[in-house]
């Protein structure tokens, strides 16, 4: 995967079950390793498209289904 740090991204997790509400983690990529462990800065948790939590720095272990760059919204 070719992502640059300090790039806004969207992360969706592979939970193994069909979620009732779609959960995304969005914000700035701090670090990504070969095992798909992801560190985010200024993290926001979205449920069904709405911001539910703002949690600052976050670590997401390698159970990632989808990672995409996100256009900045100012």
UniProtKB/TrEMBL annotation:
* One GO biological process term: mRNA splicing, via spliceosome
Q: Which UniProt keywords apply?
A: Cytoplasm, mRNA processing, mRNA splicing, Nucleus, Ribonucleoprotein, RNA-binding, rRNA processing, Spliceosome, tRNA processing
Offer one Pfam family short name for this entry: LSM
- GO terms assigned for molecular function: RNA binding
State the compartments where it is located.
Cytoplasm; Nucleus
Give the family from UniProt.
Answer: Belongs to the snRNP Sm proteins family. SmF/LSm6 subfamily.
InterPro entries (UniProt xref): Lsm6/sSmF, LSM_dom_sf, Sm_dom_euk/arc
A Gene Ontology term for the protein's cellular component: sno(s)RNA-containing ribonucleoprotein complex
Span of the signal peptide: none
Listed name of the protein: Sm domain-containing protein
Ranges where the Sm domain occurs: 23-65
């Amino acid at each position: 995967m070719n992502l640059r740090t300090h790039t806004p991204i969207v992360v969706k997790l592979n939970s193994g079950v069909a979620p009732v509400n779609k959960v995304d983690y969005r914000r700035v990529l701090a670090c990504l390793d070969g095992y798909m462990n992801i560190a985010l800065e200024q993290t926001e948790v979205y449920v069904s498209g709405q911001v539910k939590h703002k949690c600052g720095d976050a670590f997401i272990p390698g159970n990632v289904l989808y990672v995409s760059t996100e256009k900045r919204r100012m």
